[in-house]
Amino acid sequence: MLTMSGRFACAFAARLNPTVGRFLISEQITFDLKKANTMSSVTADAIIAKLEELAEVRAAAEVTRLDYEAKRAEILKAIQAELEALAAEYEPVLASAHERVANLEAEVKSDVMTYGGSVKGSQMHAVYTRGRISWDNKGLDGYAVGHPEILTFRKEGEPSISLRAVK
Questions:
Q1: Among 96, 124, 130, which Cα is nearest to 108's?
Q2: Does the CA dihedral 34-40-41-47 come out positive or negative?
């Protein structure tokens, strides 16, 4: 449920300019949240239209990212040899440090698990968290048919929405 009120203007609509491969922000959309709060019917067609626009904007952003990467690679060619020499100098030292960090983390986690409690150093804190408890929801729903009093202990969160690409 939206609780804000007022008007928001969103200047956003990406359109590919075929001559330069860039995107222009050109369309202004005004959205009145007071009206949105009172709207009770949302149609699948309206959602599909927004999904189509979302796909177009994502595609536009991807083309822009690819253009950026190509130009970046072109600029880096001039200093690539220097970067490779620098990497050759530092990579063994960093790899050794990362390996030691991974080994120490594993040892600390194992030791804290054996110790059974959190331990705080001057710069790091190993926090012990007991295992999570989970329940068999399907089994409890079946049990609740015969014992509805158990439903007073049930809490259900708000639904969530994820956006995925169609395959």
A1: 124
A2: positive
